[in-house]
Amino acid sequence: MGTTAVEFEDDGKQLILVYRPHDGTGWALKKLQEKGEIVIKRTFHLFEEHLIAHDQLPFEDSAFIDAGLGSPSDLDDQWMAFEIGSRDGDYFRLNSVVLGIDVPVLLSKDAPLTWRWFSTHRPVSILAVIAKLKPSRIVIGGTELDAIPIFEYEKLIDQFPTPYEIERYVQARVSGVVREYSDAKLDAEAQLNAYVNKRAQAKGKDLFKHVRQVEIAKYEFLLSQLQQMLDSEDGYSEAAWQKEILQIVCLINPKYIAAFAEIEIPDTDNHTKRFLDFLLVDASGNVDVIEIKRPFAKGLVTSGTYRDNHIASRDLSGTVMQIEKYLRHLNRWGPAGEAALRKKIGDKLPPGFQIKITNPCGLIIMGREKGLTHAQLRDLEVTRRHYKHIADIVTYDELLRRLRFILEQLQAEVK
């Protein structure tokens, strides 16, 4: 059997599939008489009762003459016409027997139908693939609430896997094993990804569009508030200072959903109790520890040098030691600690929320960079990186910079 040509005609009452075999209609008519069915592109299951006219027995009322459905003059003019759907308001209701699926299909009467609406080059029935997803019905175009818009359906058709893509997929599955044990040079997986990325038409949505102004207002407020706090530090008690800074930290670190003050943990070295200033809980239930110190005038590194180095100040090294011990005791507490924390703070978290002690991290907010020399700032960065495995050390000036840069980026995106 040669290649086929399929077109569609609308007589106002029914949808007609016109089939023009390249090697004539003789074999198809014979097969219909003997077998009762022919299948086109593995998509259209056409039975003898669906045949309403053909080139040797044209329409009695001379319909579709303009479509070239007249008496044949050569092989190219031989055709067969099958009824595959009936008019239902603004839609054609397709014959489920013809499509070989058990899901009702409605096509808008205005749909620009071609064979590509139904079948791929492989060929595979597109509607049969959709039907396997088990929708209650398939509606394409028109005004029905569950209708797939015509332009979206055409995009779906364009993105259907081509024979080339399927070949690349098979090679990628094979190469995943073969390249592990041989010197195969072709990276089929990379080829597949490159091809799929090239074909992909979906574009990422601008999610910030709907919240950008709110985010700008948020960071403007936080920046203003932090600057005001630093300008009038003496007007705050330590508790009030820590409370506001903690809120700023949580607002610019959305991973944290809650913070709890004065959490009691066991000191297994001295068989006594310690109290964490603040315990942070992230959205996955993992806990971290934060220390918030007032930005006193004392520096984070010494003004003098030891062997030509500005070393960590006593306040900074003491805070790091303090938080390191907190983390050590938390890790030792383990599952028993998780149960104790759930009992103590679980009612302040979402129902069923699980608290986990899994190698917690530390965060230290303290000190100013104002007044430090270039050499001191350099050695401060060395110190911060030295303690990175214990805690992130964030200065108030860095906190200001983070807020300022985030705000500037959001404002630039509006322009």
Structural notes for this entry:
The two termini are 61 Å apart. Strand 6 and strand 7 form a beta hairpin. Strands 1, 2, 5, 6, 7, 8 and 9 form a seven-stranded mixed β-sheet that branches. A five-stranded mixed β-sheet has the order 10-11-12-13-14. It folds into three domains: 6-159, no CATH class; 163-199, no CATH class; 212-414, no CATH class. The chain has 415 residues and is an alpha+beta fold. The chain contains eleven helices and 14 strands. The mean pLDDT is 87. It is 39% helix and 19% strand.
Write the layout of secondary structure elements.
Elements: E1 6-10, E2 14-19, H1 26-35, E3 37-40, E4 44-47, E5 51-54, E6 80-88, E7 91-94, H2 96-99, E8 105-108, H3 126-131, E9 138-140, H4 150-159, H5 163-181, H6 188-199, H7 212-231, H8 238-252, E10 256-267, E11 272-282, E12 287-292, H9 314-345, E13 362-365, H10 374-386, E14 391-394, H11 396-414
Parallel strand pairs: 8-9, 12-13, 13-14
Antiparallel strand pairs: 1-2, 2-6, 3-4, 5-6, 6-7, 7-8, 10-11, 11-12
